[in-house]
Amino acid sequence: MNGLARVCWITAPLYAVLGMSFGIYMAASGDHTLAPAHGHLNLLGWVTIALYGTFYTVMPQAAEGRLARLQVLLAQLGVIVMAPGIVFAILGMGEGLAKAGAVLILLGALLFLIIVVRATGRSAAGA
Ligand code: HEM
Ligand code: HEM
Questions:
Q1: TM spans, by residue (predicted)?
Q2: Angle at 65 (CA atoms; ends 63, 67), nearest 5 degrees
Q3: How many domains is the chain partitioned into structurally?
């Protein structure tokens, strides 16, 4: 497995453990105020990063180069900024962090789109 896929596959379950612990804490306390932060930590951290990791495992040639490293960096920074950003937004402590996280997440997804189009085009040409 290439290094970039491994980064995704190690961080995704880490986000899952954090997100699920957050969920259990909410369920146990009965306080669901921060549910959107829990949901997005799981969905952007566990699910989305695992999907990126799956793609980079299936198509290792797509993981080569700076663009792919930048893509994973943006996705990771997005999760790390967005999850606490949603907590801050819900608690009325400002929306700046959530907005910055959303932009990072979106840029990561756009870059992923470009990487997928390029890599699948190359493999289709080689087939
Ligand atoms: C140990 C595992 C988990 C526990 C105990 C848990 C617990 C909870 C609780 C208590 C809520 C609030 C429900 C409500 O107020 O209606 C919630 C909401 C949610 N959870 Fe989880 N959860 C877990 C795992 C996950 C995972 C793995 C995902 C996604 C892959 C996920 C996605 C969501 C979403 C999207 C919401 C709704 C967020 C919103 O209202 O905006 N959860 N969860
Ligand atoms: C830039 C990225 C994203 C932004 C800015 C964003 C924003 C939001 C907002 C504002 C809400 C409403 C929260 C509330 O009602 O309190 C929401 C809910 C939700 N989002 Fe996202 N989201 C993003 C990415 C995603 C992704 C990638 C997924 C799934 C993989 C997702 C799944 C959900 C789900 C399941 C809900 C809860 C819907 C419900 O409670 O009916 N979001 N999101």
A1: 7-28, 40-58, 70-91, 97-117
A2: 85
A3: 1
- pLDDT tens string for the chain (127 positions)? 889 999 999 999 999 999 999 999 999 999 999 999 999 999 999 999 999 999 999 999 999 999 999 999 999 999 999 999 999 999 999 999 999 999 999 999 999 999 999 999 865 555 4
Q: DSSP assignment of 9-27, as one string?
A: HHHHHHHHHHHHHHHHHHH
Q: Give the number of residues written for the chain.
A: 127
Centre of ligand 2 to C-alpha 37, Å, is 9
Which residue CA neighbors atom 15 of ligand 2 most closely?
Answer: 36
Could you tell me the residue range of the domain that residue 94 belongs to? 3-126
Q: 81-86: list long-range contacts, CB under 8 Å, 24+ apart.
A: 82/40, 82/44, 83/37, 83/40, 83/41, 83/44, 83/45, 84/37, 86/34, 86/36, 86/37, 86/40
